Amino acid sequence: MDVVVCVKQVPDTEQPIRVRPDGSGIDDQGLNWILNYYDEHAVEEALRVREKHGGTVTVVCVGPPRAAEAVRTALAMGADEAVHVADPALEGADHLAVARVLARVIGQLRYDLVLCGRLATDDNASVVGAALAEYLGLPQATAISKLQIGDSLATVEREVEGGVELVKVPLPALFTVERTINEPRYPTLPGIMKAKRKEIRTLGLADLGLEPGEVGAQASRVRYTRFEPPPRRQAGQVVTPDSPEEAARVIVRFLQETAKVL
Amino acid sequence: MQNDVWVVADHAGGNPRRITLELLGKGRELADAREGRLVAVVLGHGLLDLGPAFGQYGADTVVAVDHPHLHAYTTDGYTEVLSALVRERAPWLVMVPSTAWGRDCAPRLAARAGAGIVTEVEALWLEDGRLLTRRPMYTRKVMGIVEYVGSGPHLAVVLPKVFPPAGRQEGRAAQVERVEAGVSEPRSRVVETRSLQRERVSLTEADVIVSGGRGLRGPENFALLEALAAELGAAVGSSRPPVDSGWVPHDYEIGQTGKTVSPTVYIAVGISGAPQHLAGMSGSKYIVAINKDPNAPIFQLASLGVVGDLFQIVPKLTEEVRRLKAQG
Ligand SMILES: Cc1cc2nc3c(=O)[nH]c(=O)nc-3n(C[C@H](O)[C@H](O)[C@H](O)COP(=O)(O)OP(=O)(O)OC[C@H]3O[C@@H](n4cnc5c(N)ncnc54)[C@H](O)[C@@H]3O)c2cc1C
Fold first, then answer.
1. What is the pLDDT of residues A189-234, one digit of tens each?
2. What is the nearest CA distance from A243 to chain B, expressed in angstroms?
3. Strands B15-16 and B61-66, how do they pair?
4. Which of A4, A188, B28, B44 has a CA positioned 20 to 30 A from the CA of residue B285?
5. How far, in Å, is the centroid of ligand 1 from the Cα of A181?
6. What residue segments make up the domains of chain B, in order of their start?
7. Buried b vs exposed e over A148-175: b needs ≥16 C-beta within 10 Å?
8. Does residue A228 belong to any structural domain of this protein?
9. What are the chain B neighbours of A218 within 8 Å (beta carbons)?
10. Which pLDDT tens digit goes with each residue over A84-128?
């Protein structure tokens, strides 16, 4: 069972993130960059599939040179091989364009299964996974919380409104994973040492036979025009009531008179 | 048709769900601005009286595709049918609800139809003839303004509860166009659906949410929140620790790794207000926080913060609401 995992590097959400004064983007000075949270779960699931069924785990990443760090993290967790597409022409590429680049890379690999995180915690888009499945012509299931590999069929669970679906999907297939699917392992010291020696195959668009006009900003159908801080919430009041009864009355009054939901 | 606005319906047997009404409301406004038609696209099987069901909420036309393979959502079935319709009729804008199926289908549809896609949309407007959207990013610490490039079709995956539902116009009916479409056998198959249906409204549709955090201390204490929610007609949610500790299932979770909700009132009980939690609920209209720590960060954005012990306050609050309702 050869598994490909797509990973992205994102800013750590623990830290403050600010918009540049001119609204052109986020202020990336001093940001701590990490492997996307959901992608850790995807890497973990790939490793579990390999442990159970044999095969290889290949990590594929599209992102600027600094993203190699996130790829290293995935290698340190135990992935076998890695491909990193870094090209300045990808600046301003939309999610569909990124998916097309990934499809070009993965189309040249051997795989039975492609895994992605359910979303990336920087822009929350949830677009690349399903779009990639389309470009690769694969069946898909998104936001899965359980994966079982059978002969030529995977059985997955996914949370939907008001329930959980059990879906049978023929392989090869693409899945995006929910965080409840597993508990990712931490890279071990030997793992980290080994990852340092592994080669990351770094490619540009030319190596993939792609033109900037196909996957760069010019090919994008959507464009970020500006970034804004979130709307300021109106300052509220904090009270310390004398008794629970008084607290209850204050809240009820608020629900009635201000929020008007009672 | 270049000016038409489509709403791909989330529906139960041909009856639009609340999020569909929200999309129809916004869709009507945009279709009027473009002098286009508002079209409800309804996929399913055994669909009956669609004209009034969608027309009374503003749709001019219903495009209905009725096929056994569309009885329940499948990625393949929906993508095949929708992409063929979009290619053939070239609408200006296609609005898809941000539900489990909407998020599964929309990117694939965009890729196949060559449409620009924006997800997690919480505002849509025209500016000098261009269509713009606003969406939360980076755990809601940043709002991104995204513009569609070119003449369309544009695809918007819209969050629940960000637009008011369309008002009902008694007696208004839409023209129904039934489209005969061949639908291939879908590759994947849903073999079972285990219901987690709770009695009350769902989290993403609720006007009031009562949400519990680590301060609840154990699963049994969620009963306190359930009782309050029952009186308020509210849904119950949680921060992440109660999910990780197995007190409540994952579909309760609100935040970066859970649901995004925007109710009228969000009552945070024993929740400190970590950025990853705020990511999922700071779009709420009003926030009420009950916390014993006066320095809890949640108080910085609460419309009403109450410092005190939740175990004492919540039962009294439930009683007070009950008393009030009894008075009528
Ligand atoms: C990548 C990542 C993703 C995450 N995603 C999410 C997410 O989606 N959703 C989420 O919620 N968290 C998420 N978290 C976790 C988040 O960082 C916080 O740890 C979490 O939100 C804290 O939950 P809490 O407020 O319930 O618990 P705590 O922070 O422990 O707060 C408990 C609060 O209860 C109060 N309290 C205790 N006892 C009482 C009492 N008797 N009466 C009144 N008040 C009391 C305390 O004063 C305290 O403020 C994520 C973290 C990471 C790293």
1. 999 999 999 999 999 999 999 999 999 999 999 999 999 999 888 7
2. 8
3. unpaired
4. B28
5. 21
6. 5-178, 203-327
7. ebeeeebbbbbbbbeebbbbbbebbbbb
8. no
9. none
10. 999 999 999 999 999 999 999 999 999 999 999 999 999 999 999
Q: What's residue B201's pLDDT? A: 80
Could you tell me which of A248, A7, A261 has the C-alpha nearest to residue A120? Answer: A7
- Tell me the C-alpha to C-alpha distance, in Å, between residue A225 and each of A23, A25, A221, B126, B132: 9, 9, 13, 14, 9
B185: amino acid identity, one letter:
E
Kindly list the residues from chain B whose CB atom is less than 8 angstroms away from the CB atom of residue A19.
142
State the CATH architecture for B5-178. Answer: 3-Layer(aba) Sandwich (3.40)
CATH topology agreement for domains B5-178 and B203-327: yes
pLDDT for B32 beyond 60: yes
* Count, residues in chain B: 328
Name the CATH topology of B203-327: Rossmann fold (3.40.50)
The whole-model pTM stands at 0.95
Report if residue A229 sits inside a domain.
no
The pLDDT, as a whole number, for residue B196 is 76
- Is there a domain that residue A22 lies in? yes
Dump pLDDT digits (tens) for B177-225: 999 988 999 999 999 998 876 666 889 889 999 999 999 999 999 999 9
Which residues form the domain of A96? 3-219
- The pair of structure tokens assigned to B47 is 């669909």
ipTM exceeding 0.90, yes/no: yes
A236 located within any domain = no
Non-local (6+) Cβ contacts of A45 within 8 A are A115, A147, A177, A181, A182
How far, in Å, CA of B241 to CA of B247, rounded? 9
For residue B1, name the pLDDT band (cuts at 50, 70, 90). Answer: low
Q: What CATH number does residue A91 fall under? A: 3.40.50.620
Ligand 1 binding pocket mutation candidate from B240, B299, B300, B310 (most atoms within 8 A of CB): B240
Distance B199 CA to ligand 1 centre (A): 26
What's the CA gap between B34 and A140, in Å, rounded? 36
Domain total in chain A: 1
Residues 97-156 (B) with a CB less than 8 A from some CB of A: 99-101, 103-108, 110-112, 114-120, 132, 134-150, 154
Residue with token string 């931490």 = A186
Residue located via tokens 């012990």: B309
In whole angstroms, what is the distance from residue A36 CA to residue A13 CA? 10
Pocket of ligand 1 (CB under 6 A): A 13, 37; B 213-215, 239-241, 253-258, 270-272, 274, 276-277, 280, 290-293, 296, 309-311
Q: What are the DSSP E strand ranges found in chain B?
A: 5-8, 11-12, 15-16, 38-44, 61-66, 93-97, 116-121, 123-127, 130-137, 142-148, 154-158, 175-178, 189-195, 208-212, 235-238, 265-269, 286-291, 304-307
- The partner residue sitting opposite A261, judged by closest CB among B99, B207, B290, is B207
Residue written as token pair 């024993």 = B270
Q: How many CB atoms lie within 10 A of CB A27?
A: 13
